[in-house]
Specification:
57% helix; rod-shaped; 2 domains; 2 helices; mainly alpha
């Protein structure tokens, strides 16, 4: 009788250990997936970041790398008409850290 009880307790503990390990692995995978999806959503919507700290979210800021006034769409006087394609590419690379 004692052996059967010991076997059952060992079986339960091993099963619980496997379940805990499986839960931790699934939690890690889920967390990684959520972070990846959030990054993709932020990238597609422009995020809610304000790289130049001028109070205008980068998505709406014509010049996200140079601070400017809201009435000038976030551009400084040197870039009042916005960025050229080359300047935009350079700014995007700077903001993404590449």
């Amino acid at each position: 009788m004692k052996n059967k009880k010991s076997y059952t307790l060992t079986h339960v503990l091993i099963t619980l250990a496997f379940l805990v390990i499986a839960f931790v692995i699934l939690l890690y995978i889920f967390n990684t997936f959520i972070k990846q999806e959030k990054g993709e959503i932020d990238d597609s919507l422009g995020g809610s970041s304000d790289y130049d700290n001028d109070g205008i979210v980068d998505y709406f800021d014509k010049c996200p790398c140079d601070d400017g006034k809201e009435e000038d769409d976030g551009c400084d006087p040197a870039h009042i008409d916005g960025y050229t394609d080359t300047q935009r590419d350079a700014c995007d690379a700077l903001r993404k850290g590449t």
